[in-house]
Design brief:
Elements: E1 23-29, H1 32-47, H2 52-64, E2 71-77, H3 80-93, E3 100-104, E4 112-116, H4 128-133, H5 135-150, H6 157-161, H7 172-192, E5 199-202, H8 206-213, H9 219-234, E6 241-245, H10 249-253, E7 263-270, E8 273-278, H11 280-292, E9 297-300, H12 314-322, E10 335-337, E11 342-343, H13 351-357, H14 364-372, E12 377-381, H15 389-392, E13 398-403, H16 411-424, H17 431-434, H18 439-448, H19 461-470
Parallel strand pairs: 4-5, 4-12, 5-10, 12-13
Antiparallel strand pairs: 1-2, 2-3, 6-8, 6-9, 7-8, 10-11
Helix pairs in contact: 1-3, 2-18, 2-19, 5-7, 5-9, 7-8, 7-9, 8-9, 9-12, 12-13
């Protein structure tokens, strides 16, 4: 996101920084020329009240109108002056900058797949802002925290999100359940905004989150599986490591000669993206060889050779035993397993499945390929940072691959940017749920303006939006004209 449109992150390391309002301004028209004219009208409207209240009013007015025109513009809106400049630029040149998205919506809603990522995308501060600004996200994390407490965990989501500590990032006992929980909360927020997946895929521990998103597991069961993964794998720390190389699997396998216990392909992430695991020195030699061939390669900061022959096979037995009484249910939408490379019935996701999933390779490319057999798909990665998007974009049939969150970026702004990309391609959106973040600050600004009465000072976001659009016609801006 551009700094001009979106303020810097407000994470746990800067608790004094006030919240900054962020919304999504959508405009739609039947032709591109009409859309540019509408952008000019919006700019003129905003110029009449170039402050936070004026921006909130403009967004509320825009989302109260019919937004079914084929030609669409979406602007991540945080700074009134920056939004005004962006609108003028588009109106005059038809060009957009970062934080903006323009497109022509398809008549049919795009097919959307949620992809839940595995280990590697976690970062200190992930989800912190969304937990403060989005009740749906916070409620989902609270439910996960209650599940953790019931399991006797000696840590909580809330404590981790509010801390500057980074030691948990490589502690799989915490990191793996955290990744499950963050992705469940992200999925809940997407759904509250009207974005429902047509299918779900999970990579490694991401398959746990995917199973919950698909309705196979409850939140409580997904947290339980994530905790079992973390506990069992934590007891195998120091037994090996992992690496990622930008090479096809067959080329990656031929980087060096070594027995499977020392060097193995354990993840087919994409046509030219492969995950390796094994003995540390052997993997470092493989990474060096890949770089010598001018291929991207890096070691992964983990001391467990997950999904590899080197991993103690008893890990599978221990996980299966810990989950012996798991009772999965039938999915509400297809879930494509990266263990079996295709859709599975709910009953297949029992304790034995989760045990096998940690010792068998992750065949992500094959599972995604099976999904793509039914037609083009727009992929939304749910992880805290897009670790799979580059590989997903290598696949024929992927219309576009979009991130939910990014390391170091403001969570709401990033998600709104992706929401704009989805909406401009034809995805329906529940605008009443999206709102404009930071209700206290917006309420105070509206109270000082002539657009709304005093009671809005403490109103929640949806109520602010409704108040702006429910005022008598003579008192509210029912057109974008100034």
């Amino acid at each position: 996101m551009s700094d001009a449109l979106v303020p810097p992150p407000d994470g746990p390391s800067s608790p004094e920084r006030p919240n900054r309002a962020v919304g999504l301004l959508p405009l739609a028209a039947e032709t591109l020329t009409a859309l540019r004219s509408l952008a000019q009208a919006a700019a003129d409207r905003l110029a009449g009240q170039l402050d936070l209240a004026g921006l909130a009013a403009l967004i509320a007015t825009a989302t109260a109108h019919h937004l079914d025109g084929a030609h669409r513009l979406a602007l991540v809106a945080a700074e009134p002056n920056a939004v005004h400049r962006a609108l003028i630029r588009f109106a005059e040149t038809g060009q957009i900058g970062e934080g903006s998205c323009v497109g022509q919506a398809d008549r049919a809603r795009p097919t959307v797949a949620f992809v839940c990522a595995g280990y590697g995308g976690q970062w200190a501060g992930m989800g912190h802002e969304l937990a403060r600004l989005e009740p749906t996200f916070a409620d989902a994390l609270d439910r996960c925290d209650r599940a953790l407490t019931a399991l006797g965990a000696d840590w909580s989501m809330a404590d981790v999100l509010d801390s500057d500590a980074t030691d948990w990032l490589t502690d799989v006992r915490i990191a793996l359940p955290m990744l499950v929980c963050i992705q469940l909360a992200t999925a809940a927020l997407w759904r509250s905004w009207g974005v429902e997946p047509d299918a779900v895929i999970g990579h490694s521990v991401g398959e746990v989150a995917a199973a919950a998103v698909a309705g196979v597991l409850t939140t409580e069961d997904a947290v339980r599986v994530g905790v079992a993964f973390g506990r069992v794998l934590s007891s195998r720390r120091g037994s090996g490591t992992m690496a990622l190389v930008a090479l096809p699997a067959d080329e990656a396998a031929g980087l060096i000669e070594a027995p499977p216990e020392s060097f193995a392909v354990v993840g087919l992430n994409g046509p030219r993206t492969t995950l390796l695991a094994g003995e540390p020195e052997t993997l470092r030699a493989a990474v060096a060889e890949a770089r010598r061939r001018r291929a991207f390669a890096r070691m992964i900061e983990i001391d467990i050779p997950a999904h590899a022959p080197r991993l103690d096979p008893a890990a599978a037995t221990e996980i299966a035993a810990a989950l012996y009484d798991l009772r999965p249910t039938e999915p509400t939408r297809p879930i494509f397993s990266t263990v079996t490379c295709g859709p599975l019935p709910g009953a297949a996701f029992d304790g034995g499945h989760w045990g096998r999933s940690v010792v068998l390779p992750v065949r992500f490319i094959d599972a995604l390929g099976r999904l793509l057999e039914s037609g083009p798909v727009t992929v939304v990665e749910l992880g805290p940072h897009p670790v799979l998007i580059a590989a997903i974009e290598e696949m024929n049939g992927v219309t576009r691959a979009l991130a939910s969150l990014r390391r170091g970026e403001r969570g709401r702004a990033t998600m709104l940017g992706t929401l704009g990309a989805l909406w401009t391609s034809g995805q329906p959106v529940d605008w009443s749920a999206v709102g404009f973040a930071d209700a206290d600050r917006i309420g105070a600004a509206l109270r000082r303006s002539t657009l709304a009465p005093d009671p809005l000072a403490q109103a929640p976001v949806p109520q602010i939006r409704r108040a702006l659009t429910d005022l008598p016609i003579a008192e509210r801006p029912d057109r974008l004209d100034p």
